[in-house]
Amino acid sequence: MKQLEGTWLSSREEDSGDTLVYRPNTYHFPSSRGRPGFAFKSYGRFEQFNIAPTDGLAGYPGTWVIDGSKLNKIRIHLNEGQEPDYDLEVFSLKNKVLKLRKLPAGKP
User: Fold this and answer.
1) Confidence band of 100 (pLDDT split at 50, 70, 90)
2) What pTM, to 2 d.p., does this model score?
């Protein structure tokens, strides 16, 4: 899971169906009015980035933990209850491309 640590931004041009694609924030993305994303930090710290009204990014802190029953499922909890907890189901992480699906917390 150490490979997950870092800041990931949406590469929505590569999304397919319910599979979402993210790349490191250092990737040379095409022009966009903002790209949501998140940062996995050490010790279970997390920050979600949403597009702000001014087209920049607004950060929302939280936590992440690996679901004990599935090593590819990560539970996300945002502090202050900005939105309900959710799960990220990781399909692939290779060549600095992260592919996942966002699910309501506790759904298969």
Assistant:
1) very high
2) 0.88
Q: Look up residue 41 and give its two tokens.
A: 């930090």
* Assigned token pair, 9: 């931004």
Rounded-to-integer distance, Cα 60 and Cα 108, Å: 26
Q: Which of 37, 24, 44, 39 is nearest to 93 (CA)?
A: 24
Distance of alpha carbon 71 from alpha carbon 67, whole angstroms:
6
- Rounded CA gap, 61 and 82, in Å? 10
Cα 58 versus chain centre, distance = 14
Q: Which residues of 89-98 are buried (b: 16+ CB within 10 A; e: fewer)?
A: bbeebeeeeb
Per-residue pLDDT reduced to its tens digit, 6-41: 999 999 999 999 999 999 999 999 988 789 999 999
Listed in order, strand segments (DSSP E) in 1-108 are 6-10, 20-24, 37-40, 45-51, 57-66, 73-78, 86-94, 97-104
